[in-house]
Amino acid sequence: MYGCEAWTISKQTQKKLEATEMWFLRRMLRISWTAKKTNDTVLEEAHTTRLLISKIRKRQATYFGHVMRREKLENLVTTGMLEGKRSGGKQREKLIEGLADWLKAGKSLEAIEATKDRKKWRTMIANAVKQGT
After folding, report:
1. What are the domain boundaries of the chain?
2. Which terminus of the chain is more exposed, N or C, with fewer CB under 10 A?
3. Residues 68-81: pLDDT tens digits?
4. What is the CB-side half-sphere exposure of residue 81 using CA atoms within 13 A?
5. CA geometry: angle at 106 spanning 101 and 111, to 5°?
6. Which H/E stretch holds residue 100?
7. CA–CA separation, 99 and 111 (whole Å)
8. 8, 98 in Cβ contact below 8 A?
9. Nearest in space to 99 (alpha carbons), one of 65, 52, 50
């Protein structure tokens, strides 16, 4: 999980992380891969929910709030407001876009504005963690 604050998590990456997390749970519970158990029953046996993605998103959101309040070079790089041309082809997903979707903030500008008020930002993060991924 070291450095996960800077990861951009696409849908494909999220599926891979969830599959890996499920594999870990099955190994810890010693459930054979030939056993016909659904992921839901494995999660019930483990008395847990999917933790990995929500923990990564929470760490990303707290780091993002910290960077946005500092208003330095990291702020410009994270928001993508640097001068110059963008490369051709399909554009990569930005960290702020993934966080805005997770926080259900609508547009990324709403998430950026919410970081200015630390109490409001922490409330948004807590609500997103409660709702899950």
Report:
1. 10-50, 53-82+93-133
2. N
3. 888 777 776 666 66
4. 12
5. 80
6. helix 95-103
7. 8
8. yes
9. 65
In the numeric block, which tokens belong to residue 51?
A: 């933790």
What digits encode the pLDDT tens for the residues 11-61? 888 899 989 989 998 998 898 888 888 888 888 888 777 778 888 888 888
Question: Which tokens belong to 78?
Answer: 């994270």
Angle between helices 118-131 and 95-103 (to 10 degrees): 70
Q: In whole angstroms, what is the distance from residue 60 CA to residue 100 CA?
A: 11
Residue 13: which of 58, 65, 57 has the closest Cα? 57
Instruction: Give residues with Cβ within 8 angstroms of 64, minimum separation 6.
Output: 5, 78, 95, 96, 99, 111, 115
Q: How far apart are CA 121 and CA 90, in angstroms?
A: 31
The DSSP output letter for 94 is P
Give the pLDDT of residue 7.
81
Q: Give the chain's count of helices (H) and strands (E).
A: 7, 0
Compute the distance between CA of residue 43 and CA of residue 54 in angstroms, rounded to an integer.
Answer: 15
